């Protein structure tokens, strides 16, 4: 039995996250566990999730969940906007709650980029690195 959908296409931040995630080479979206998830063979980002940090499962519907490098985890977890997501936290994922503070979409782009690089096949990472540098990319740096 499939999971019920737990999002709407007009949810806050979903359009922005889609634009970021689907710009990566080979990226595609599919609904997983009732939520929009972004894959390149493996999942590299998901919109919406939940936390079990207090023992109870608490839904966090407007967030992005990404895989993070172990070297970045401690610093990110000190930031009140980040949470340890239920089920996937143990596998190296963290969530960024969009409702705690104004969303910095450049930061989200960097988090999604780092997550993509942790799970994507080498050929997809090469394709990403071989893209021409655009004026938009220069403005973000």
Structure description:
With 141 residues, the protein is of the alpha+beta class. The protein has helices at 14-21, 70-77, 105-119, 122-129, 135-140; strands spanning 28-32, 35-40, 42-51, 58-67, 82-83, 93-97. It has one domain (14-140): Aspartate Aminotransferase, domain 1 (Alpha-Beta Complex). It is built from five helices and six strands. A hairpin with a 1-residue loop joins strand 2 and strand 3 (42-51). Helix 1 (14-21) crosses helix 3 (105-119). It starts with 13 loop residues before the first helix and ends with a helix.
Using brief descriptors, characterize the structure shown.
141 residues; alpha+beta; Aspartate Aminotransferase, domain 1; six-stranded antiparallel β-sheet; globular
What's the SSE blueprint?
Elements (H helix, E strand, L loop, with lengths): L13 H8 L6 E5 L2 E6 L1 E10 L6 E10 L2 H8 L4 E2 L9 E5 L7 H15 L2 H8 L5 H6 L1
Antiparallel strand pairs: 1-2, 2-3, 3-4, 4-6, 5-6
The largest sheet has its strands arranged as 1-2-3-4-6-5
CATH architecture field? Alpha-Beta Complex
* Poorly predicted runs of 5 or more residues: 137-141
Helix/strand order, N-terminal first: HEEEEHEEHHH
The number of distinct β-strands equals 6
User: How does the major sheet shape up?
Assistant: 6 strands, antiparallel
Q: How far from one another are the termini?
A: 45 Å
SS-based structural class?
A: alpha+beta
The CATH class assignment is Alpha Beta
**How many structural units, i.e. domains?**
1
Mean pLDDT: 92
Which fold name fills CATH's third level, the topology?
Aspartate Aminotransferase, domain 1
* Rg value: 15 Å
Strand percentage, roughly?
A: 25-35%
Keywords: DNA-binding
GO molecular function, one term: DNA binding
Protein name: MmcQ/YjbR family DNA-binding protein
InterPro entries: YjbR-like_sf (IPR038056), YjbR/MT2646/Rv2570-like (IPR058532)
